[in-house]
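ok here's the first one, seq then struct tokens
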Amino acid sequence: MKTIIRGRDSGKAKELFQLAREQDAYIVSQNKRALQVKADSLGYSDIAIIDYEDLDNETHEGKVLIHNADKWLKTVFYNTFGVEVIGFSATEE
């Protein structure tokens, strides 16, 4: 699993787009429209991007990349379990 952790405006999204293209994966995002605009502006209009909510409403198969995974974790844990995530660890493999 690829982990991309850097500061704002450091090219994380572009790296995610490239990885999606190379791996034939789609991207799950909290803000599909904004990320699609960014992908289009960087020449990645062929990348499939869906909203978090689309995972509940549609069937998806294959590989997925999560844009801003920290926000996704916070949202899922709060909405599902009513708890606030205040940190997490991850293993880079």
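and now the second one, same deal
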Amino acid sequence: MKKSLFMFLMVVLTAFLLISCSRVQDIEEPTKGELKGVKLEKLDGIPAEYGALVGVTANPQYHRWAQLWFQDDNGTIRVVSVGFFDQKMLENVTVIPRRLSDNSRLQKNRHLKIEIG
């Protein structure tokens, strides 16, 4: 009797697992609003065309890393991650393009300059 009860429970459990499984969604192409990423060609410096350093942030979960925020003359923002303890840069750079609306007050001042120091 124990063996038949065990077999019954195994069949029920297997049926439950098969019914509850669902297909994993396919990875889709980036949609509107997703940011573009690029890779640094060389990891020995930050390209001058990235513009001025306008901010530095850190995430407590990654306490050995900081994100350097750069803004070029067109207003495009690029975020570079730097490991200041290991003295390394990640090759992945997040690019945030700037777009001005027709009625924007920022048309004359294309970007914000923040002085650090």
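notes on #2: Helices lie at 2-20. Residues 54 and 115 are 7 Å apart (CA to CA).
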